[in-house]
Amino acid sequence: MPAGGGRSSQPTTRSSSMTRRSPATGRSPTRRSTASMRPDLPTSAMRRRCGCSLTRKHRPPGTGVGCLRGGPPFGDAANVERASLCPRNEAVVEAAYTFRRAARLVIDGDTAAAQAVVASLDDEVLRSHWFTVGAAPAALGVLPRTLPPAGAPLVPKTPGAGVIAAVFARDGWRCRWCTTPVIARHALRRMHLVFPVLFPRGDRDADRHALLLAAGATPDHVLPRSCGGTHQPDNLVTACWPCQFARGEYTMEQLGLMDPRLRPPVIDDWDGVAWFRD
Asked: What is the full DSSP assignment across 119-182?
């Protein structure tokens, strides 16, 4: 062996029963993890999120087998743009109009009839929609996190109430991504006050009526705040909870999404039930 403990350049033959030891310590070297030896394989965190096997090469979402349950395209894989990560669910649309009918009955003083209408809402179907799309693709965090540009000013987390109201009215109270009719938060809150047991509004998803999760109105930043997006109305669109939460903080380019501002909003008789206040 050369001086200094270096490895000889001559090939050597070792018995399979021999253990290679460090010349300096005499100890067997620490076994490196599969992830450090093979960076192309998924880490344990990635496997938990998308179900990749230990030996399967981890691929960014949309590029191949098995990752993120066939989730959104990313990078060069984003060659087919789509309007939304969450396809419109007609059961959610029907439930939104059912909610409006119940709200009108409450206003008219027919609480018993309103109770029957609210009870007809299929909570399990709506909840299934939320957990299928709203809690998935980008929210799983396999995609690399987008950081704000260097020196970008800090933007308050939530736009002002006046800005939000103007955006909702401009967009006809419909999600600009999937066109689902959305419901004003104060209307959902009032229905909870009228029927606290039948229409729960807890802090956890399990303690909320699923219509809040599937059709609640929320403002969405087209260019995310984490990328320097502002609260200007031209950077805000109306969204349903599933579309907003599925997208997370990723850009349209990362997820292969079309710019919703290029499509005119759907303006009809839908009003978000904004007149139903507590």
From this structure: HTS-HHHHHHHIIIIITSGGGG--SPPPPPPTTPPP--SS--HHHHHHHHHHTTTB-TTT--B-
Q: What φ, ψ does residue 17 adopt, rounded to 5°?
A: -85, -10
* DSSP state, residue 4: G
Radius of gyration of the chain (CA): 26
Please name which of 1, 34, 3, 33 lies closest in space to residue 20, comparing C-alpha atoms: 1
Taking residue 78's Cβ as centre, other Cβ atoms within 10 Å add up to 20
Q: Is the dihedral of CA 82, 270, 273, 122 positive or negative?
A: negative
Name the packing angle between helices 90-107 and 111-119 (round to 10°). 170
User: What does the pLDDT look like over 220-252, one tens digit per residue?
Assistant: 999 988 788 889 999 999 999 999 888 888 888
The confidence score (pLDDT) of residue 253 equals 85
From 58, 213, 44, select the one nearest 125 (Cα to Cα): 213
pTM: 0.68
Write down the residue that tokens 């704000």 correspond to. Answer: 148
Name which of 67, 72, 272, 94 is nearest 185 in CA terms: 272
**Residues 178/187/99/163 CA torsion (nearest 10 deg):** -20
Q: Are 138 and 246 in contact (CB under 8 A)?
A: yes
**Residue 238, helix vs strand vs coil:** strand
The Cα 250–Cα 7 span in angstroms is 48
Could you tell me which of 240, 233, 251 has the C-alpha nearest to residue 210? 240
Q: Where are the domains of the chain?
A: 90-140+147-262
